[in-house]
């Protein structure tokens, strides 16, 4: 009796294990990529995810916002065709009163802890990791964007030997005065881009934002973007303004057939 029930139990366990194994294979085939968001900062960061649903409907299998204590990391699956996705870190958040864009010192979004799926892009300044998977030419393209400015250092690594965009430097302390965001104590907590700061006062026709008569790569050179050298000099491998591809170190590509998994690290 005893050995019979023991045999049945083992048979049941084997069936369970086989089932789990099969569903794991199926889940992996459907999900395709694993993303990890890691907080290596000495302070809490509230990561946020936004997908431009005008471009594609695939979204990561992860809430659009969460709390990441120092040293923590979270992994989740991301569809192979994620388009126009952004991941950034928010600082000094408190969602208890009026959850929304002002709930964080930097990077806050409509919605509060969970960024609104339609309008929850981060408030500048924020360093943003941007992704389009399986894009044109069957390439993943990705970058660390300073187009909205900088709040915390970010790096994007991968497991297939593709390029590593980053802004590892802390661009806050020496941020040009007219671009600074400070906290109540006067400490610099973020550094706006010239575009986000509306430095030229004409957002509809701006050499900093590449709009109006400056809306082409040819009419919006880096030389016309105020403080370009400050951001690009400190963070060469980041995407500093709307047409920064010309620098050769802004936008990064990886053959989508390699099915890269990506790690976004705050304070690498
Ligand atoms: C968060 O905000 C609430 C309401 O303003 C306040 O009572 C609370 O002390 C704050 N929490 C922290 C940790 O600052």
Explained architecture:
The protein is built from 2 helices and 12 strands, in the order αββββββββββαββ. By secondary structure, it is of the alpha+beta class. Residues 94, 96-97 line the site of 2-acetamido-2-deoxy-beta-D-glucopyranose. It comes from Mycena indigotica. Residues 1-31 form the signal peptide. This is Thaumatin-like protein. Keywords: Disulfide bond, Signal.
In helices, the fraction of residues equals: 10-25%
Order of helices and strands: HEEEEEEEEEEHEE
CATH-wise, what's the superfamily of the largest domain?
Thaumatin
Total number of domains: 2
Shape: globular
Taking pLDDT < 50 over at least 5 consecutive residues as the criterion, the unreliable ranges are 1-30
Largest sheet: 5 strands, mixed
Strand content: 15-25%
Computed structural class: alpha+beta
> For the CA atoms, what is the radius of gyration?
21 Å
Strand order of the largest sheet: 3-1-12-7-8
- State the name of the first-level CATH class of the largest domain: Mainly Beta
């Amino acid at each position: 009796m005893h050995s019979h029930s023991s045999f049945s139990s083992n048979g049941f366990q084997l069936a369970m294990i086989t089932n789990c194994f099969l569903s794991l294979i199926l889940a992996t085939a459907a999900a395709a990529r694993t993303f990890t968001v890691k907080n290596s900062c000495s302070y809490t960061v509230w990561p946020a995810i936004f997908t431009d649903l005008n471009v594609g409907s695939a979204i990561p299998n992860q809430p659009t916002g969460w709390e990441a204590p120092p040293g923590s990391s979270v992994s989740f699956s991301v569809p192979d065709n994620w388009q126009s996705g952004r991941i950034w870190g928010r600082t000094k958040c408190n969602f208890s009163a009026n959850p929304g864009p002002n709930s964080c010192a930097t990077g806050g979004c409509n919605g509060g802890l969970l960024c609104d799926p339609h309008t929850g892009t981060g408030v500048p300044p924020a360093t943003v990791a941007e992704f389009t998977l399986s894009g044109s030419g069957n390439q993943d393209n990705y970058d660390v964007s300073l187009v909205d400015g900088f709040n915390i250092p970010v790096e994007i690594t991968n497991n297939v030997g593709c390029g590593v965009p980053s802004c590892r430097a802390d661009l806050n302390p020496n941020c040009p005065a007219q671009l600074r965001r400070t906290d109540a104590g006067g400490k610099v907590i973020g550094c706006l881009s010239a575009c986000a700061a509306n430095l030229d006062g004409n957002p509809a026709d701006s050499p900093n934002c590449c709009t109006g008569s400056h809306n082409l790569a040819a009419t919006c050179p880096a030389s016309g973007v105020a403080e370009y050298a400050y951001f690009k000099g400190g963070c060469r491998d980041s995407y500093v303004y709307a047409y920064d591809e010309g620098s050769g170190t802004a936008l990064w590509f990886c053959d989508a057939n390699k099915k890269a998994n990506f790690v976004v690290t705050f304070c690498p």
